[in-house]
Amino acid sequence: MPIIIIRLSILLLASLVTWGIVWVGRRFVERQRQQALAAFPVTASSDSAIAESHGNSSSVRILAFSSEDCHQCHTLQAPALQRVQDKYGDRVTIVDVDAPNEPELTRRYHVLTVPTTVVLDTTGRPHAVNYGFAPAPKLIAQVQEAVTRLQPA
User: How many CA atoms lie within 13 A of 137 on its CB side?
Assistant: First the structure.
């Protein structure tokens, strides 16, 4: 009987430690997301990655952070972004940002991993930040929220 109590205690302790690590990790990511959403609006004149994009300044922009060796970026995120582009046309501008070569933007939006997508409203203010793969329906909903947030009631 005592061996079972010891094993159950170890299992309970391991479960609590795992839960604590997950909780701390989630709080860290949420804190990074809140800091990214509080970032100054991006302007085409001040950021090289944005200046190189040929998007309409009155469109919602999605900054798609990736890297050359990111498999998820090219096989999952790129097709999802293409579906968003197909749905919204010129009302959305997708800006590909090579995270390792754009350290200023990477720091500004607290990019933790690639792929990361940042949805900017028409004023350049961050509306949503997605760390990791963001499916097309989620991005479409975020773009729609960014568009309707700025329309007069």
Answer: 0
In a domain, 20, yes or no: no
Which CATH number characterizes residue 109's domain? 3.40.30.10
Q: Among candidates 89, 75, 85, which has minimal Cα distance to 133?
A: 75
pTM of the model: 0.79
Of 91, 75, 72, give the one whose Cα is nearest residue 130.
72
Model confidence pLDDT, tens digit, residues 39-83: 877 665 455 555 455 455 678 999 999 999 999 999 999 999 999
Both tokens of 91, joined, read: 């009302």
Which bin fits 89, alpha (ψ -120 to 50), beta or left (φ > 0)?
Answer: left
Q: Does residue 19 lie within any of the structural domains?
A: no
Whether 110 is in a domain gets the answer: yes
Query: For residue 1, what pLDDT band results from cuts at 50, 70 and 90?
Result: low
Task: Give tens-digit pLDDT for 8-47.
Answer: 999 999 999 999 999 999 999 999 989 888 887 766 545 5
Determine the length of the chain: 153
Query: How far does CA 64 lie from the centroid of its chain?
Result: 8
- Copy the structure tokens of residue 139: 């991005």
Query: By residue range, what is the domain housing residue 105?
Result: 39-150
